[in-house]
Amino acid sequence: MKPPNAARRSQRSHRAILEAAYELALDRGPAKVTIDAIAARAGVGKQTIYRWWPSKGALLLDVLIDAVGAVSEMPDTGDVVADLTTQMTAVTDLFRSDFARFYTGLIAEAQADDAVARGLAEQLADRAEGPRRQRLEKAQRDGQIRADVDIAAAVEALYAPLYYRMLLRTAPLSVDHVHAVIDATIKGLRPNPV
Amino acid sequence: MKPPNAARRSQRSHRAILEAAYELALDRGPAKVTIDAIAARAGVGKQTIYRWWPSKGALLLDVLIDAVGAVSEMPDTGDVVADLTTQMTAVTDLFRSDFARFYTGLIAEAQADDAVARGLAEQLADRAEGPRRQRLEKAQRDGQIRADVDIAAAVEALYAPLYYRMLLRTAPLSVDHVHAVIDATIKGLRPNPV
Amino acid sequence: MKPPNAARRSQRSHRAILEAAYELALDRGPAKVTIDAIAARAGVGKQTIYRWWPSKGALLLDVLIDAVGAVSEMPDTGDVVADLTTQMTAVTDLFRSDFARFYTGLIAEAQADDAVARGLAEQLADRAEGPRRQRLEKAQRDGQIRADVDIAAAVEALYAPLYYRMLLRTAPLSVDHVHAVIDATIKGLRPNPV
Amino acid sequence: MKPPNAARRSQRSHRAILEAAYELALDRGPAKVTIDAIAARAGVGKQTIYRWWPSKGALLLDVLIDAVGAVSEMPDTGDVVADLTTQMTAVTDLFRSDFARFYTGLIAEAQADDAVARGLAEQLADRAEGPRRQRLEKAQRDGQIRADVDIAAAVEALYAPLYYRMLLRTAPLSVDHVHAVIDATIKGLRPNPV
DNA sequence: GCTTAAACGAGACGGTACGTCCGGTCTTGTC
DNA sequence: GACAAGACCGGACGTACCGTCTCGTTTAAGC
């Protein structure tokens, strides 16, 4: 009795809800989007939203997946440093766009809603971290990355600073910042052996 | 005429509010704390809260400052790697404690409230990043850290992964994680020369 | 779009609200009845009250209409003085009962709320003054009342003193008072001719 | 310890409060006057109001006494019907002026505040009904009013309709209304004996 | 004329109720 | 049976006033 029959789901309503939620989230921030407003803009009954999503966060997560798709493809020119620079710059641009508001809002939602947190972590691991790790693992096999380095830690040392600045706003994101992080991480912090 | 006379502020109420907010935030999460509940638990009129804080986030920020105090002191044994290990392990422990729930909730609040975002960034820059940078700068002067490295980027490469895991929960925080991040960052990702 | 769809109104809630309001008004006086208390006692959301009534006074007016029904029937024994005595005594009894508190409270409300004033005046004109005038007009046709007397003024001369004492409390309402007013008004104040 | 020393009372504040209350009551209705607003407009601390008056109603009652003074003097030309016509017309004019709003508001206040009700009844009995009864008693002695009529009832039959229309607004006050009431009451309702 | 206790202005305080907003559920037709 | 519409209960919001309670500051009485 709980799960409704997905086969009878109205595709028209489904799409209208995702689009309404996305538009509202962009223009007032996800925290200020209400289910009422989404339903009204989508021309949909509130029950239809509650029928298919357990919470506002879950809906926003679907909106994210729907809107973003496969954003994080890693280039592979053979030069891992160049590729990281390219891709981290792209991420920085994304994190400075209107989309950031949506993304940070969703992360905020995840702090109070475990289902959203799990979905978001999974999404992040699969779509974002996965390709990054694979690229670094390839570079490791190519001898461009030290063989005994922990790949997960390496990805985080490179990318976490971008999320950190987006979320905590201690300093602005910039291309210079990308270069500085790559320089520090690739070359390492200890003095160059002579 | 707008700002109330701070000299007449009731210290008793002020403390009771901070304590009530802290206790409530710990036991149900900051997002579910209501001004009504804080006022009731503190034995205070709601107006007294609204008189002195512009938003729930601003109050929680004060609670953070009040509750945490000087948490982030950097040790200085002369060995920067040992000191980073010590301190990052302490931060990891903090980020795995009940306090994390409070902290992430406040960061969530900051995503929808610019004043909180600013206050939090300032707090973070002054109390957390400051000592970390100073320790690395000293290590730089001591020759333990490469002279041309960007200190801000270095601090982020080391610490941002801790915030990243606390907030995004892609993987658990652990002592091993701390070691992996330090190894990757200190030694760097490129193959050891020689 | 503003007025809600009356067809979908919950009869259960409607009745519960009227009854809760009536009980609360009787036991603490209409001025001290709050919308919060009515909603709580009726087991109803406050919005449901605000959806259907524009003000507390409007609700109390509906309560009056609901509670009183057809109180003011005029008897007709053929003897207009006897009938007036009977009916004014009944009104006096009503104005000395607990109901008076409710009624005076509603009249008080009307002094600050024009909609209530209009509703109350209409109610009074239709349900109370109407039958009284009709009885006097019949008596006029029967030759028991002087043909050239202004019926509206006559009704007021007889009944206004009852409202006056209920509201201003310069002296108590009583059967003797009824007799005195009827005597003064029916026989008139000027000396008996002859 | 309770009653403050009246000798030290500030006349300046006393007057300012009465005036502020009167002005505010006229321009927004007594029900919407707040102690806060009176204090602010009078340039007076709220405590000063609470020190000298037990309730808003009590203050408004003093305002009434202060503002109205001896309004209800009865003329005495020797012709009681002419005198009643003159004076009831004056009362009607007063009840149609801005003052009516103030007066009805105070009567409304009295319905929920016994002290105000008592004060108002006393005021009414002394200042308004007293002179009216005395005039009718004189007329009785002069043979213009039937000897066995109840004077209190007679005064009410004449004047209560004016209060009734002011408070209940079933019909407008007017000179014609005054004439009709006087005609009905003086001549009486029963047919003229032939 | 000096002292001192009161009454005063200002306004912060603990509370209560306001009228609004929204979350999540339930109900009533329609398709 | 999923849907659009929207009424419903509940509960938090931020505001307005209540009546009480400090705070200094006049101010007028009595020494």
Automatic annotation (TrEMBL), chains A, B, C, D:
Q: Which UniProt keywords apply?
A: DNA-binding, Transcription, Transcription regulation
Q: Which residues form the HTH tetR-type domain?
A: 11-71
Q: Which GO terms describe its molecular function?
A: DNA-binding transcription factor activity; transcription cis-regulatory region binding
* A Pfam family per the record: TetR_C_11
Protein's UniProt name: AcrR family transcriptional regulator
Q: What does the record give as the DNA-binding region?
A: 34-53
Query: Membrane among the record's keywords?
Result: no
Origin species, per record, is Kutzneria kofuensis
